[in-house]
Design brief:
The chain has one domain (2-243): Rossmann fold. 44% of the residues lie in helices and 16% in strands. It is built from 8 helices and 7 strands. It has helices at residues 2-5, 18-29, 41-55, 69-83, 107-134, 156-176, 202-207, 222-229, and strands at 9-13, 33-38, 59-63, 88-91, 138-145, 180-187, 240-243. Strand 5, helix 6 and strand 6 form a beta-alpha-beta unit. Helix 2 packs parallel to helix 3 and helix 5 packs parallel to helix 6 (156-176).
Amino acid sequence: MDDELRDKVVVVTGGSRGLGREMVVAFAERGARVVVASRKRDACVAVAEEVGRRFGVEALPVACNVSDWAACDDLVETVYDAFGRVDVLVNNAGLSPLYPSLEEVDESLFDKVVAVNLRGPFRLTALVGSRMARGAGGSIVNIGSIEAIRPSPAALPYAAAKAGLHVLSVGFAQALGPSVRVNTVQAGPFLTDIAANWPDGLREDVEGRVALRRCAEPGEIVGAVLYFATSASSYATGAVLRVDGGWR
């Protein structure tokens, strides 16, 4: 996998922190040219400069709010202007705001969650995947969630959007094959900066629900993403790989 990724162009949304940052570092360490896309440009620049300095690769920071349809279009044009192609797209950007109760979820919150977790990945996959299919092919990796199949009342709009993302993976796999593969990594509980704001007792409750009896460190997402990004998964498309510690 290390040699295969050298000089590939890899786009990671939500790439400035958490799981996305771990992915960017992993791809850059293997010689890929990386695009760090996230809402805040300064954060993208910091990660791009870090991996460029550490690994000597080209790293392009792009501010992009994937909930904005036009911003997705601009991201794609920026990347193709800079590199002329995309070999791997990782739809990682996600959002799941807390809310006091389901009846207090307003239209704005609901629409925002769906836009970030579902609409943005749809637009980016449609644009990038179509260009991949007309060119040399590629791999698209969607970062899903255990919430898609084990929804909790505390994150129901997010769960619904992630379930939709799983559907997109299967549909786009059919639409973009045979040269483009589209797969989902279904993530369980990871100790990102978001976990620092979990309510008291939630971590203990979560760890009691998984076979491994612990939450994952952010870097533990990397192996699954690299698997789907490379020919190690050459006969996998429309697939879901659970990386959830054995959630029950």
